Amino acid sequence: DQQVKQNSPSLSVQEGRISILNCDYTNSMFDYFLWYKKYPAEGPTFLISISSIKDKNEDGRFTVFLNKSAKHLSLHIVPSQPGDSAVYFCAAWTGTASKLTFGTGTRLQVTL
Amino acid sequence: KAGVTQTPRYLIKTRGQQVTLSCSPISGHRSVSWYQQTPGQGLQFLFEYFSETQRNKGNFPGRFSGRQFSNSRSEMNVSTLELGDSALYLCASSLARGGTEAFFGQGTRLTVV
């Protein structure tokens, strides 16, 4: 049972444009949502998070939007840079279980 | 400040053997979690250790086990290896239980042949 879903396995965006990565979830008990970035042969690196009581969090070029009624969140990267090319994982966290539930990842390629 | 260190980085084992992976968390971090990453499955939660006790366990068979030492270092053991156990095993550390921001190591790539 995949509680966190990333339905797009890959995304290609031109440098300078906006990248939008999407994530859907089924468990309304999640307290926090996080995005991680992963390069090959490295562990995931924390990027940005959002509390379930918020609908937007911004950090530089990265903004995460949360739509609780739709159980959907998205990560916007503006402007996209070649160094952003990586696999992005959406994750959700529950305080009661104290564990992260990850999506299957979206591979972002930023082209010149 | 050193990050999360996992050893070894790469490992090749034969079916039926057992393997032990090691994880040293960030200094001061007391919570260690383990994840398995396979193509198409994302990161699957294995277990979490805090203060030398397993606090949470994912949906994996009993062949997967772990422990945590008093210095917060953790080991994960897989017995009777199967081909399907081939994966990247990632360790993450957090300052305390319930830490929403987990810091990951580079992982151990296990190949079972």
How would you describe what is shown here?
The complex is a heterodimer of chains A (112) and B (113). The model of chain A has no long low-confidence stretch (mean pLDDT 93). The radius of gyration of chain A is 13 Å and the shape is globular. Chain A has no helices and eleven strands. By secondary structure, chain A is mostly beta strands. In chain A, the strands form two sheets. In chain A, strands 2, 4, 5, 9, 10 and 11 form a six-stranded mixed beta sheet that branches. A five-stranded antiparallel beta sheet of chain A has the order 1-3-8-7-6, with no helix packed on it. With 113 residues, chain B is mainly beta. Helices cover 0% and strands 53% of the residues of chain B. In chain B, strands 2, 4, 5, 6, 9, 10 and 11 form a seven-stranded mixed beta sheet that branches. The mean pLDDT of chain B is 92. At the A-B interface, strand 4, strand 5, strand 9 and strand 10 of A face strand 5 and strand 10 of B.
Record the SSE blueprint.
The complex is a heterodimer of chains A (112) and B (113).
Chain A: E1 4-5, E2 10-14, E3 19-25, E4 32-38, E5 45-51, E6 56-59, E7 62-67, E8 72-77, E9 86-94, E10 99-102, E11 106-111
Parallel strand pairs in A: 2-11
Antiparallel strand pairs in A: 1-3, 3-8, 4-5, 4-9, 6-7, 7-8, 9-10, 9-11
Chain B: E1 5-7, E2 10-13, E3 19-24, E4 31-38, E5 42-50, E6 53-57, E7 64-68, E8 74-78, E9 87-94, E10 103-104, E11 108-112
Parallel strand pairs in B: 2-11
Antiparallel strand pairs in B: 1-3, 3-8, 4-5, 4-9, 5-6, 7-8, 9-10, 9-11
Q: Beta-sheet strand percentage of chain B?
A: over 45%
Structural class of chain B: mainly beta
Q: How many strand segments of chain B?
A: 11
Helix content of chain B: under 10%
